[in-house]
Amino acid sequence: MNPPSLIGAPVDSGQRQPGCLMGPAALRVAGLRETLAALGHPALDRGDLALPESLPACDSPNRALDQLPATLAWTATIREAVEAELAEGRLPILLGGDHSVALGSVAGASAHATRAGRPLFLLWLDAHSDFHTPRSTTSGNLHGTPVAYAAGRDGFDPFPPFPAPLPPERMCLFGIRSVDPAEHAALAECDIAVNDMRVLDEQGIAAPLRAFLDLVQAENGMLHVSLDVDFLDPGIAPAVGTTVPGGATFREAHLVCEMIHETGLMTSLDLVELNPFLDDRGRTARLMVDLLGSLMGRKVFDRPTRLYA
After folding, report:
1. Mean pLDDT score of the chain, rounded to an integer?
2. 308 belongs to a structural domain
3. Which residue has the higher pLDDT, 1 or 151?
4. Catalytic residue among 85, 130, 183, 258
5. d(CA 176, CA 130)
6. CATH assignment at residue 76
7. Selected catalytic residue, list 45, 183, 233, 273
8. pTM, entire model
């Protein structure tokens, strides 16, 4: 596994609930660097990114769009930062910030993978499919658009074209349980694997995830993991503005993270939608750091690692 770099992305522009900009600081206070160091992965902390002094002049036919100029600027800034870390052979860990962070992080990972001549795969751990476009969203919240951007859907002007849109088989939506009708219709027209909670209830956590990870391994792919707080059940992770009941349990979430680590495939990571203002004495921040520990090699039970030749 490449050495990790921490990149704070205090982004609040993708939705209207204030507080996500405090996420990077809360993750650091919860012991993120100390956890990585204890696992033998001392992290280089790049600090927090910042918006440029002037935002781009832009407009959209969708009058509901909220904070478009700021989100455009964040997307460019985050993309550049992720590309730079990957070019140095490091594993960028984006500390969000709302999920619009992924507009830039996945684009940066895609641009790097294209230059490296390797396919990029996306594992989306989230309650929501985030398959709206800036034109289709009725809420106007751009944190609901990154998967559609990565898939190359039309309707993203004035965002720059996604570097190399991901074909459906390279994307896996995992833990989904809230999909708008427009998103449902768009997803029905493509073959993206949508492992909603019904699928996971019927098949268990391990089988669908292993099938996707095996595909990444077979293609010698790079894997971007995007972990949203609302992937977790709000009973264990209350610090998110978009709670949806019935999410992953403590052990299910750790199993997902342990399985990802065992493959050695993860090359970039988002930790997003943590809103410390909504937390209970840092409970959710500590859980996210704990899950990062599992992603980086810590196991609850001592058992043999599944090897990938």
Report:
1. 94
2. no
3. 151
4. 130
5. 10
6. 3.40.800.10
7. 273
8. 0.95
